[in-house]
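Supplementary notes for students who missed Thursday's class. We covered one full example, reproduced here. Read the sequence, then the structure, then the short commentary at the end.
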Amino acid sequence: GGNGLHAKDVCRALGGGTEPRHVESMRARLKRLVERGVLTEPDPGLFVLPRPDPPATPEINSS
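Structure (token representation):
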């Protein structure tokens, strides 16, 4: 779907600069998140938060 963001969109959303140097540093940061499995990159330069999988273990209620 069209729910992904490009590095420039992320910069804009966070109120940062959209100059190439800002966009490049943001892209590098996003790539690191992809490596860690926090984000996915379905298309080059398009970053998406993966849909959360249903938890494998039931959540423990504190009550």
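Commentary. Helices lie at 7-13, 20-35. DSSP finds two helices and three strands in the chain. If anything here is unclear, bring it to office hours.
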